[in-house]
Amino acid sequence: MIAGALALIAAGGFSAVTVASVARESGVSRQTVYTLFGSKEALVSEAVGTVALRVLGVISDQASATDTPLDHLLEFAVAAVTEVRRDAVLTTLLFANEGNPIYLRETVIRGIPIAHELLAPMFDKYPRLADKRDRVVELAVRLGISVIMFDSEAVRDDEGLRAFLRPPLASIL
Question: Which pTM value belongs to this model?
Answer without folding.
Answer: 0.71
